[in-house]
UniProtKB/TrEMBL annotation:
Domain (IclR-ED) ranges: 75-257
Name of the featured protein: Glycerol operon regulatory protein
Native organism taxonomy: Bacteria, Bacillati, Actinomycetota, Actinomycetes, Pseudonocardiales
Molecular functions (GO terms): DNA binding; DNA-binding transcription factor activity
Database matches in Pfam families: HTH_IclR, IclR_C
Protein backbone atom coordinates (compact mmCIF):
# COMPACT_ATOMS: atom_id res chain seq x y z
CA UNK A 1 0.00 0.00 0.00
CA UNK A 2 2.75 2.42 1.03
CA UNK A 3 4.88 1.56 -2.06
CA UNK A 4 1.90 2.05 -4.37
CA UNK A 5 1.13 5.47 -2.88
CA UNK A 6 4.81 6.39 -3.14
CA UNK A 7 4.89 5.42 -6.81
CA UNK A 8 1.83 7.55 -7.57
CA UNK A 9 3.21 10.69 -5.93
CA UNK A 10 5.86 11.63 -8.56
CA UNK A 11 3.36 11.02 -11.40
CA UNK A 12 0.78 13.21 -9.65
CA UNK A 13 3.29 16.00 -9.12
CA UNK A 14 4.32 15.77 -12.76
CA UNK A 15 0.67 16.03 -13.88
CA UNK A 16 0.13 19.09 -11.71
CA UNK A 17 3.32 20.67 -13.08
CA UNK A 18 2.21 20.02 -16.66
CA UNK A 19 -1.27 21.40 -15.98
CA UNK A 20 0.28 24.61 -14.64
CA UNK A 21 2.53 24.76 -17.72
CA UNK A 22 -0.57 24.53 -19.93
CA UNK A 23 -2.19 27.44 -18.08
CA UNK A 24 0.99 29.52 -18.31
CA UNK A 25 1.30 28.79 -22.04
CA UNK A 26 -2.31 29.82 -22.72
CA UNK A 27 -1.88 32.94 -20.60
CA UNK A 28 1.16 33.87 -22.71
CA UNK A 29 -0.21 32.97 -26.17
CA UNK A 30 -3.87 33.82 -25.64
CA UNK A 31 -5.01 30.60 -27.31
CA UNK A 32 -3.50 27.37 -28.62
CA UNK A 33 -4.54 23.96 -29.93
CA UNK A 34 -3.70 20.54 -28.52
CA UNK A 35 -0.94 19.90 -31.07
CA UNK A 36 0.69 23.27 -30.47
CA UNK A 37 0.59 22.80 -26.69
CA UNK A 38 2.07 19.30 -27.02
CA UNK A 39 4.97 20.60 -29.13
CA UNK A 40 5.63 23.49 -26.73
CA UNK A 41 5.66 21.19 -23.69
CA UNK A 42 7.42 18.32 -25.41
CA UNK A 43 4.78 15.73 -24.48
CA UNK A 44 2.40 13.47 -26.39
CA UNK A 45 -0.88 14.92 -27.68
CA UNK A 46 -2.89 12.36 -25.70
CA UNK A 47 -1.30 13.62 -22.46
CA UNK A 48 -2.18 17.23 -23.32
CA UNK A 49 -5.69 16.20 -24.31
CA UNK A 50 -6.27 14.59 -20.89
CA UNK A 51 -4.84 17.59 -19.04
CA UNK A 52 -6.88 20.09 -21.04
CA UNK A 53 -10.00 17.96 -20.53
CA UNK A 54 -9.61 18.14 -16.74
CA UNK A 55 -8.87 21.89 -16.82
CA UNK A 56 -11.87 22.48 -19.08
CA UNK A 57 -14.15 20.49 -16.77
CA UNK A 58 -13.10 22.78 -13.90
CA UNK A 59 -13.64 25.93 -15.96
CA UNK A 60 -9.94 26.83 -15.97
CA UNK A 61 -9.68 26.65 -19.77
CA UNK A 62 -12.35 26.89 -22.44
CA UNK A 63 -12.60 25.96 -26.10
CA UNK A 64 -12.93 28.75 -28.64
CA UNK A 65 -15.89 27.71 -30.79
CA UNK A 66 -15.18 24.79 -33.10
CA UNK A 67 -11.63 25.82 -34.02
CA UNK A 68 -10.01 23.41 -31.61
CA UNK A 69 -8.22 26.26 -29.86
CA UNK A 70 -8.25 26.68 -26.09
CA UNK A 71 -7.85 29.78 -23.94
CA UNK A 72 -7.86 30.66 -20.26
CA UNK A 73 -11.34 30.12 -18.82
CA UNK A 74 -13.46 32.18 -16.48
CA UNK A 75 -12.59 29.85 -13.61
CA UNK A 76 -9.13 31.46 -13.46
CA UNK A 77 -10.73 34.89 -13.21
CA UNK A 78 -12.97 33.64 -10.42
CA UNK A 79 -10.01 32.26 -8.46
CA UNK A 80 -7.93 35.39 -9.03
CA UNK A 81 -10.84 37.58 -7.99
CA UNK A 82 -11.34 35.62 -4.78
CA UNK A 83 -7.64 35.86 -3.92
CA UNK A 84 -7.51 39.57 -4.72
CA UNK A 85 -10.68 40.18 -2.72
CA UNK A 86 -9.27 38.50 0.38
CA UNK A 87 -5.96 40.33 -0.02
CA UNK A 88 -7.76 43.68 -0.30
CA UNK A 89 -9.93 42.80 2.67
CA UNK A 90 -6.94 41.91 4.84
CA UNK A 91 -5.00 45.01 3.81
CA UNK A 92 -7.93 47.39 4.23
CA UNK A 93 -9.05 45.67 7.40
CA UNK A 94 -5.77 45.92 9.29
CA UNK A 95 -6.04 49.66 10.12
CA UNK A 96 -9.69 49.15 11.12
CA UNK A 97 -8.70 46.27 13.43
CA UNK A 98 -5.93 48.35 14.97
CA UNK A 99 -8.22 51.31 15.58
CA UNK A 100 -10.90 49.13 17.18
CA UNK A 101 -8.33 47.28 19.29
CA UNK A 102 -7.11 50.64 20.63
CA UNK A 103 -10.66 51.72 21.48
CA UNK A 104 -11.83 48.42 22.96
CA UNK A 105 -8.56 47.26 24.47
CA UNK A 106 -9.30 43.74 23.25
CA UNK A 107 -8.23 41.46 20.42
CA UNK A 108 -10.01 42.29 17.17
CA UNK A 109 -10.16 39.88 14.22
CA UNK A 110 -11.55 39.77 10.71
CA UNK A 111 -12.70 36.36 9.49
CA UNK A 112 -14.06 35.07 6.20
CA UNK A 113 -15.99 31.96 5.28
CA UNK A 114 -13.84 29.09 4.00
CA UNK A 115 -16.15 26.21 3.17
CA UNK A 116 -17.49 24.89 6.47
CA UNK A 117 -15.21 26.93 8.73
CA UNK A 118 -14.19 30.54 9.36
CA UNK A 119 -10.62 31.60 8.71
CA UNK A 120 -9.05 34.65 10.35
CA UNK A 121 -7.23 36.96 7.93
CA UNK A 122 -6.45 40.01 10.07
CA UNK A 123 -5.85 40.70 13.76
CA UNK A 124 -4.88 43.47 16.16
CA UNK A 125 -4.40 43.30 19.92
CA UNK A 126 -5.56 46.00 22.30
CA UNK A 127 -3.66 47.18 25.34
CA UNK A 128 -5.80 45.18 27.74
CA UNK A 129 -5.52 41.89 25.82
CA UNK A 130 -4.11 39.29 28.18
CA UNK A 131 -3.26 36.53 25.69
CA UNK A 132 -0.78 36.69 22.84
CA UNK A 133 -2.68 34.08 20.82
CA UNK A 134 -2.29 34.63 17.07
CA UNK A 135 -5.54 33.80 15.30
CA UNK A 136 -4.39 34.78 11.79
CA UNK A 137 -4.71 31.81 9.45
CA UNK A 138 -6.55 29.78 12.08
CA UNK A 139 -9.65 27.87 10.98
CA UNK A 140 -12.41 28.10 13.57
CA UNK A 141 -15.82 26.40 13.76
CA UNK A 142 -18.87 28.31 12.58
CA UNK A 143 -21.22 27.10 15.31
CA UNK A 144 -18.97 27.92 18.29
CA UNK A 145 -17.63 31.38 17.40
CA UNK A 146 -19.22 34.81 17.04
CA UNK A 147 -17.64 35.40 13.61
CA UNK A 148 -18.69 31.95 12.50
CA UNK A 149 -22.31 32.58 13.43
CA UNK A 150 -22.34 35.87 11.52
CA UNK A 151 -20.94 34.15 8.44
CA UNK A 152 -23.21 31.12 8.79
CA UNK A 153 -26.28 33.34 9.09
CA UNK A 154 -25.36 35.05 5.82
CA UNK A 155 -25.09 32.04 3.47
CA UNK A 156 -27.88 30.90 1.19
CA UNK A 157 -30.63 28.90 2.88
CA UNK A 158 -29.82 25.45 1.36
CA UNK A 159 -26.13 25.71 2.25
CA UNK A 160 -26.96 27.11 5.68
CA UNK A 161 -29.26 24.17 6.38
CA UNK A 162 -26.58 21.71 5.27
CA UNK A 163 -24.06 23.32 7.62
CA UNK A 164 -26.55 23.55 10.50
CA UNK A 165 -27.40 19.86 10.21
CA UNK A 166 -23.77 18.72 10.07
CA UNK A 167 -22.22 17.03 13.09
CA UNK A 168 -20.93 19.65 15.54
CA UNK A 169 -18.17 19.32 18.11
CA UNK A 170 -18.92 20.40 21.69
CA UNK A 171 -15.81 22.36 22.68
CA UNK A 172 -17.22 23.32 26.09
CA UNK A 173 -20.44 22.61 28.00
CA UNK A 174 -21.76 25.88 26.49
CA UNK A 175 -21.25 24.93 22.84
CA UNK A 176 -24.53 24.73 20.93
CA UNK A 177 -24.63 21.54 18.86
CA UNK A 178 -28.39 21.04 18.47
CA UNK A 179 -29.49 22.09 14.94
CA UNK A 180 -32.86 23.45 16.11
CA UNK A 181 -31.24 25.65 18.76
CA UNK A 182 -28.54 26.78 16.34
CA UNK A 183 -31.22 27.70 13.82
CA UNK A 184 -32.92 29.90 16.45
CA UNK A 185 -29.62 31.59 17.27
CA UNK A 186 -28.95 32.37 13.62
CA UNK A 187 -32.39 33.93 13.28
CA UNK A 188 -31.50 36.21 16.19
CA UNK A 189 -28.16 37.03 14.58
CA UNK A 190 -29.96 38.14 11.43
CA UNK A 191 -32.49 40.21 13.40
CA UNK A 192 -30.00 41.77 15.84
CA UNK A 193 -27.15 42.27 13.40
CA UNK A 194 -24.51 40.71 15.64
CA UNK A 195 -23.52 37.40 17.20
CA UNK A 196 -21.97 36.40 20.51
CA UNK A 197 -20.01 33.45 21.83
CA UNK A 198 -19.86 33.13 25.59
CA UNK A 199 -17.42 30.36 26.52
CA UNK A 200 -18.57 28.28 23.55
CA UNK A 201 -15.11 27.75 22.04
CA UNK A 202 -12.96 28.07 25.16
CA UNK A 203 -13.84 28.37 28.84
CA UNK A 204 -13.33 31.95 29.93
CA UNK A 205 -13.37 33.37 26.39
CA UNK A 206 -16.14 35.69 25.24
CA UNK A 207 -16.52 37.22 21.78
CA UNK A 208 -18.92 39.35 19.76
CA UNK A 209 -18.98 39.92 15.99
CA UNK A 210 -20.76 41.98 13.35
CA UNK A 211 -20.93 41.57 9.56
CA UNK A 212 -18.80 43.35 6.96
CA UNK A 213 -20.47 43.87 3.58
CA UNK A 214 -18.98 44.08 0.11
CA UNK A 215 -19.79 45.77 -3.16
CA UNK A 216 -22.67 43.43 -3.97
CA UNK A 217 -24.27 44.17 -0.54
CA UNK A 218 -23.66 40.60 0.70
CA UNK A 219 -21.74 39.71 3.85
CA UNK A 220 -18.09 39.14 2.92
CA UNK A 221 -16.56 38.90 6.39
CA UNK A 222 -17.14 39.25 10.11
CA UNK A 223 -15.24 41.53 12.46
CA UNK A 224 -15.06 40.45 16.08
CA UNK A 225 -13.73 41.43 19.49
CA UNK A 226 -12.71 38.74 21.94
CA UNK A 227 -11.38 38.65 25.46
CA UNK A 228 -11.83 37.18 28.92
CA UNK A 229 -15.37 36.82 30.17
CA UNK A 230 -14.80 39.08 33.17
CA UNK A 231 -14.01 41.97 30.82
CA UNK A 232 -16.31 41.20 27.86
CA UNK A 233 -19.28 41.06 30.18
CA UNK A 234 -22.90 41.11 29.05
CA UNK A 235 -23.11 44.72 30.28
CA UNK A 236 -20.37 45.88 27.87
CA UNK A 237 -21.59 43.96 24.83
CA UNK A 238 -23.83 46.69 23.39
CA UNK A 239 -21.07 49.30 23.59
CA UNK A 240 -18.64 46.88 21.93
CA UNK A 241 -21.22 46.07 19.23
CA UNK A 242 -21.69 49.78 18.50
CA UNK A 243 -17.93 50.29 18.10
CA UNK A 244 -17.60 47.20 15.93
CA UNK A 245 -20.44 48.44 13.74
CA UNK A 246 -18.65 51.75 13.19
CA UNK A 247 -15.53 49.88 12.13
CA UNK A 248 -17.47 47.44 9.94
CA UNK A 249 -19.28 50.34 8.23
CA UNK A 250 -15.96 52.03 7.47
CA UNK A 251 -14.49 48.84 6.04
CA UNK A 252 -17.67 48.04 4.08
CA UNK A 253 -17.56 51.49 2.47
CA UNK A 254 -13.93 50.95 1.47
CA UNK A 255 -14.95 47.64 -0.12
CA UNK A 256 -17.56 49.41 -2.25
CA UNK A 257 -20.70 48.71 -0.22
CA UNK A 258 -23.42 51.29 -0.81
CA UNK A 259 -26.04 51.42 1.90
CA UNK A 260 -29.55 51.28 0.44
Amino acid sequence: MGNSDGAKAPALVQSVDRAISVLELLAHKGEAGITEIAIELGVHKSTVSRLVGVLEARGLVEQQGERGKFSIGFGIVRLAGAATGQLDLAQLGTPVCESLADILGETVNIAVLDGSVAINISQARGGAAVAAHNWIGKRTPLHATSSGKVLLASVDAPERERLINAEHTAYTPNTVTDPARLREILRSVTEDGYATSFEELEIGLHAVAVPVRGQQTGVVAAISASGPGYRLSHDRIQWIVDELRHGAAELSTQLGYIRR
